[in-house]
Design goal:
10 helices, 188 residues, mainly alpha, elongated
């Protein structure tokens, strides 16, 4: 059988718990412990002099005070009160700082990286020739026919080359420059 629910503990305190559930209470240590704790709490609360019901005079005055508060006109709230003024000032400063940040970020242009030295270019080329990953790419690209790749949908989207060029490391940029210079010299 399942333990007593909270509503059943209320029924126990009120004396309306069904006999079947009372039988469970007698056989279950956990439910009996909870019931004893509730009884102890109720006994302690009943013996507290501060928990006594207020006098009838309190309730008469309480009702009168509530009615007066309801009938009274609302306090006039000024928009320039200190908390609202502080919050408005903070919001204004925040918006101005954000606008200034956006404006200055649009006006600044990134400086292009300095061209790599010849020594860096030669070192980068040597590193790429020894790199096994690039060897795999070169081997795969050696048999690649551009027309067949385009027919299969393997084409670069607009802006892909620009994005990839910006993601190159310094050594990769140096090698790209070397390769382009070699191509331009051989094609000219």
């Amino acid at each position: 059988m399942t333990h007593l629910r909270d509503a059943e503990f209320v029924d126990l305190i009120d004396g309306t718990l069904p006999p079947v559930r009372l039988a469970h209470l007698r056989s279950c240590d956990a439910c009996r412990t909870t019931a004893d704790e509730l009884r102890h709490t109720l006994t302690t609360a009943a013996s507290d002099p501060l928990a006594a019901e207020p006098s009838p005079l309190f309730w008469e005055q309480f009702g009168r005070r509530v009615n007066e508060s309801i009938d009274a006109p609302p306090d006039r709230v000024r928009w320039w009160s200190a908390p609202r003024l502080a919050f408005g000032s903070l919001a204004t400063v925040t918006i101005l700082l954000l606008a200034l940040t956006v404006i200055t970020s649009r006006n600044t242009t990134p400086t292009p990286p300095a061209p790599p030295s010849t020594a860096a270019t030669t070192q980068a080329a040597d590193d790429l020739d020894a790199d096994m990953d690039w060897a795999v790419v070169r081997a795969a690209a050696g048999d690649l026919n551009l027309d067949e790749a385009q027919a299969e949908g393997l084409v670069a989207r607009p802006g892909t080359a620009d994005r990839l060029a910006l993601e190159l490391t310094h050594a990769e940029r140096a090698e790209l420059i070397r390769l382009l210079q070699t191509e331009f010299k051989s094609g000219a």
